[in-house]
Design a protein that fits this description.
By secondary structure, the chain is mainly beta. The chain has one helix and ten strands, in the order E-E-E-H-E-E-E-E-E-E-E. It has one helix spanning 29-35; strands spanning 2-6, 13-17, 23-26, 40-46, 50-54, 58-63, 69-74, 81-86, 93-97, 111-113.
Length: 134
């Protein structure tokens, strides 16, 4: 599936080809801290299927809890996370941040990792009262 997206302010945009059946939720503490939220949702693309079409993201280098180096790419103007990649064999995969994908409503997660760090209320969110807008 071809996708495209951009950061919140529009300074950085990209396009990619992804497998819509490979969308994951990560509950690790790093993702919680980097998003300021309970988890992060990511779509995956092969390096050769991803291209930044405008702007130049800034890079934050993070060593994960598993000891692997992760490059966190984000907009230096608005701070939106754009994508992540790694070193060695991890460099062949791009993890695109779901929130800035234009076609995100068509992309539902089908797996989750680092579940031991998941918020204890994560599975109960659907039972919370809600409203369409605030």
């Amino acid at each position: 599936m071809k996708i495209d997206g951009q950061c919140h302010c529009g300074a950085i945009s990209y396009e990619a080809v992804i497998d819509p059946d490979d969308i994951g939720i990560c509950h690790c503490v790093d993702c919680q801290q980097l998003t300021g939220s309970a988890y992060r949702v990511t779509a995956f693309a092969r390096r050769e299927d991803f291209r930044v079409t405008a702007g130049m993201p800034k890079t934050y280098v993070k060593t994960g809890a598993n000891g692997r180096i992760r490059y966190q790419m984000f907009c230096g103007d608005c701070g939106s996370p754009i994508y992540t990649t790694g070193t060695d064999e991890d460099a062949e995969e791009i993890g695109i941040r779901w929130g800035n994908i234009r076609q995100r409503k068509a992309l539902a997660p089908n797996h989750q990792i680092w579940c031991e760090s998941a918020a204890n209320w994560f599975g109960e969110v659907a039972m919370l009262p809600g409203r369409e807008r605030d």
